[in-house]
User: Which sequence fits this backbone?
């Protein structure tokens, strides 16, 4: 499905301004559409089939390259105009450097060229502080603007927040996930109070989607649904490198999601033993529930550190006990689930659960524009975990 | 995409709070599916691959269980092996994923017996109760009739006698899926409906027409009713006529005994094409729910003008293919296909001119055509708009300009295309027709689910929107039966088109008489 570009044209502008970038983009588009192998008599026109604008923000050139590659891989799926901004706010002189690239590929059915426009912008000095003024003239009007923010959450005063409709972060990159997920929650609140209806999303949250689906699926039937009301213990195992902590963004968000959906109120968070395990406690009406986040050494296994490996939910007691587990298989491509109702039945199964690549994750996020209220509510719970 | 949610059926009462906001909102509840004809072609080619795919996509619950029922004596293990071979061959995702299949197949069971043996149904009931206890299927049952249609009435009756039409618990549900053909004329359709309704309630009955499970067919609804642009021009004032084409390049492919009985009209027009027609012509439903949508569809079918007794010739063309060439390969004549009578009068091509007598469509013809062994496989709906009322540019190519056309392609290359006139750049006013294409596959590059996957899931979820209701089936049969009877009164001069041609010449003249011509897809 992903095709290599049929034609790519690039221009470098060492020191330029926004008008220069816009002119160059138009010129490259014209040039690519009139190259010799484009048949002039074809009734199908060159299509700038853009469905969105994408702005990538990073302070790291390597991350910018990775971002550009990811966008390139999506050219045929989400044709877009994208601006990849490398900010160097500490540079002494204000300056804008740009490389514009247009990649076109033939539509699978033939006849039509689908083109992807990209500007790699290095913003130095004061320019990096006023990125809104750089981005606005370069965006295609009437199309949604997605801001993919690489790094810790953006500051509340960031200008790009004023032009975007959806903010995408990856909380796995937050150095202090507990504090910075809280910051992200406060950002949602501040923007909402300013009437900026930005939808928030997080690649790490998206990585949890299959886990949430499999956990939710346990309780779809009338026989298992009542167990949710007596859910008392959750154990989340997380892959860690030797010396690392298991309390990463993934288990925090997963626990917060369960709490938010089940109406649990956070009581606190406690480090156990050697501070490698953590206990999250919640009030749920008359009773309490706890989520234990435990490390699992990542030796000779695939996948990233900080990733959830297994979840076990325990509800009820004695002959009313139900145990529900989801675990990633060592091959990294499947998950096994087991539901065991004491005195009744036990069912296990294996389903596919591949790790999503960055391309898959971005594709998923670009396909939706509406608010993910469940994510925002889960963030609110995470924020309340910190005393 | 039709993402509109339908209201949950009465059977789904309690809500799982963890479901909210999940992208996969539509996963099936625990249930047991009994496949009658469990070892047959449909089960092997369509049902089991679709179920396996749903399992791959994590859309089935772990408790999901299949009970195959057929005559040959097989053990559970032998049934699993047969199904594994079938899925290995027919699944749309290859290769088969062993760990997933192994765990999915643990939910496959088998019972052998005769379809008319009352004892067999007692054994089915006992086995289902046991599966409720051991696999948590919660008393929910889905009976799937994948047998030859002649067995439908007896299965339905036996299910009723065995008390299997109600679940064992108050909140459990029981549904029955009936494959087409639903009857072979109006009389048999009414009889079958009567039998089914004497045992099941209509809300338990799911008559499957896999055409409605296709993404683009559903997209027709989305396209019409979620865009404000089309509705104002979607009527006799602006539309000159509509052409619906279902062309197949294949012949009858070893289905001679079925096709000799059925023919093009029964096989395709009565079911699939009338469904397409109804979706194109229907009024906006008040909501996207099973009965509101089907109410509007049945109104269209009811409004089709009957053909006057002596004028079948003016409103229909039938054809049968002779030998010819398709795609560089020689194809035999229909009458030379194995199993076909040498003087068979069975039509392999049908073209109809229909009028829908209501305010929206009065006097706007709908041309339908379907044929086997046509030059290529294509299904499309072409909405031909009226010409611009006054041509400013007659001397600049304007007289050759085609009027606006909106084309909904259903297969292959699903998409929508709009044809309009534009000026050729330059100092003179030269005009050309250009196409604005929306290709489904380029905007949403996800694998579209197979129609059976969508429909099986809908059925488990209790959503009957994409299934045919009894009155729809009967209305369609009423029209088609009359036509069949009219045709039977005269002996056709067959064969009258070569394999690889766009049908009989008479079909072209048929439109030329109206000053129109068929599109070449």
Assistant:
């Amino acid at each position: 499905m992903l095709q290599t570009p049929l034609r790519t044209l690039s221009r470098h502008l060492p020191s330029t301004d926004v008008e220069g970038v816009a002119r160059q983009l138009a010129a490259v588009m014209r040039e690519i559409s009139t190259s010799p192998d484009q048949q002039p008599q074809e009734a199908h026109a060159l299509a700038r089939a853009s469905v969105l604008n994408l702005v990538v923000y990073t302070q790291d050139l390597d991350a910018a390259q990775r971002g550009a590659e990811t966008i390139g891989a999506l050219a045929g799926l989400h044709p877009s105009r994208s601006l990849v901004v490398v900010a160097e706010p500490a540079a002494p002189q204000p300056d804008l450097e740009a490389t514009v690239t247009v990649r076109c590929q033939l539509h699978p059915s033939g006849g039509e060229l689908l083109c992807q426009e990209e500007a790699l912008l290095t913003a130095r000095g004061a320019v990096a502080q006023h990125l809104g003024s750089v981005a606005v003239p370069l965006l295609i009007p009437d199309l949604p603007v997605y801001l993919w923010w690489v790094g810790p959450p953006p500051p509340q005063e960031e200008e790009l927040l004023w032009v975007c409709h959806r903010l995408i972060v990856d909380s796995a990159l937050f150095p202090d996930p507990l504090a910075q997920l809280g910051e992200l929650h406060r950002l949602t609140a501040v923007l909402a109070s300013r009437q900026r209806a930005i939808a928030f999303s997080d690649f790490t949250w998206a990585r949890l989607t299959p886990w949430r689906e499999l956990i939710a699926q346990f309780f779809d039937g009338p026989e298992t649904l009542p167990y949710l009301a007596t859910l008392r213990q959750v154990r989340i195992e997380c892959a860690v490198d030797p010396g690392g902590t298991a309390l990463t963004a993934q288990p925090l968000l997963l626990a917060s999601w369960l709490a938010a959906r089940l109406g649990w109120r956070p009581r606190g968070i406690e480090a156990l033993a050697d501070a490698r395990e953590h206990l999250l406690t919640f009030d749920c009406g008359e009773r309490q529930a706890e989520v234990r986040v435990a490390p699992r050494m990542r030796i000779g296994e695939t996948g990233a550190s900080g990733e959830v490996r297994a979840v076990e939910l325990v509800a009820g007691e004695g002959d009313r006990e139900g145990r529900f587990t989801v675990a990633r298989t060592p091959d990294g491509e499947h998950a096994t689930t087991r539901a065991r109702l004491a005195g009744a039945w036990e069912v296990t199964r294996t389903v596919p659960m591949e790790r999503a690549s960055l391309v898959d994750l971005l594709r998923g996020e670009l396909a939706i524009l509406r608010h993910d209220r469940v994510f925002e509510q889960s963030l609110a719970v995470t924020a309340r975990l910190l005393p | 995409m039709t993402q509109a949610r339908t209201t949950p059926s009465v059977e789904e009462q309690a809500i799982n709070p963890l479901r909210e906001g999940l992208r996969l909102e539509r996963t099936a509840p625990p249930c047991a599916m009994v496949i009658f004809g469990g070892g047959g072609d449909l089960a092997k080619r369509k049902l089991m691959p679709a179920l396996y795919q749903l399992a791959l996509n994590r859309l089935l619950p772990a408790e999901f269980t299949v009970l195959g029922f057929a005559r040959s004596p097989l053990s559970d293990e032998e049934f699993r092996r047969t199904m594994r071979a079938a899925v290995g061959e027919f699944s749309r995702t290859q290769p088969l994923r062993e760990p997933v299949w192994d765990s999915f197949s643990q939910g496959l069971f088998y019972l052998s017996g005769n379809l008319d043996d009352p004892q067999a149904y007692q054994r089915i009931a006992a086995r289902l109760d046991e599966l409720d206890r051991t696999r948590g299927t919660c008393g929910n049952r889905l009976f799937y009739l994948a047998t030859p249609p002649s067995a439908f009435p007896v299965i339905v009756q036996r299910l009723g006698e065995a008390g299997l039409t109600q679940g064992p618990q108050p909140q459990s549900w029981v549904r029955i899926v009936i494959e087409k053909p639903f009857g072979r004329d109006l009389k048999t359709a009414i009889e079958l409906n009567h039998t089914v309704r004497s045992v099941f309630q209509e809300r338990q009955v799911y008559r499957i027409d896999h055409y409605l499970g296709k993404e683009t067919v559903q997209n027709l609804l989305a396209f019409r009713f979620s865009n404000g642009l089309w509705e104002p021009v979607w009527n006799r004032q602006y539309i000159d006529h509509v052409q619906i084409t279902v062309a197949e390049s294949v012949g009858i492919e070893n289905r001679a005994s079925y096709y000799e009985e059925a023919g093009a009209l029964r096989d395709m027009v009565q079911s699939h094409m009338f469904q397409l027609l109804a979706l194109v012509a229907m009024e906006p439903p008040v909501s996207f729910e099973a009965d509101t949508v089907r109410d509007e569809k049945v109104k269209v079918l009811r409004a089709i003008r009957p053909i006057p007794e002596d004028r079948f010739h003016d409103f229909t063309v039938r054809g049968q293919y002779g030998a010819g060439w398709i795609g560089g390969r020689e194809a035999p004549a229909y009458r030379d296909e194995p199993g076909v009578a040498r003087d068979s009068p069975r039509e392999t091509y049908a073209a109809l001119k229909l009028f829908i007598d209501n305010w929206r469509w009065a006097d706007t013809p709908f041309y339908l055509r379907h044929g086997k062994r046509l030059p290529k496989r294509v299904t499309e709906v072409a909405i031909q708009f009226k010409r611009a009322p006054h041509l400013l540019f007659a001397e600049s190519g304007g007289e050759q300009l085609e009027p606006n056309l909106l084309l909904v392609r259903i297969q292959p290359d699903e998409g929508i295309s709009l044809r309009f006139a534009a000026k050729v750049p330059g100092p003179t006013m030269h005009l050309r027709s250009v196409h604005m294409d929306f290709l489904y596959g380029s905007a949403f590059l996800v694998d579209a689910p197979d129609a059976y996957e969508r429909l099986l899931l809908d059925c488990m979820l209790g959503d009957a929107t994409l299934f045919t209701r009894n009155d729809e089936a009967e209305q369609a049969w009423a029209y088609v039966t009359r036509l069949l009877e009219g045709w039977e009164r005269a002996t056709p001069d067959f064969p009258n088109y070569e394999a690889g041609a766009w049908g009989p010449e008479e079909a072209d003249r048929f439109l030329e008489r109206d000053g129109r011509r068929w599109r070449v897809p």
Summary: The longest helix of chain A spans residues 177-193. Chain A touches chain B through 55 residues (CB under 8 Å). The two ends of chain A are 48 Å apart (CA to CA).
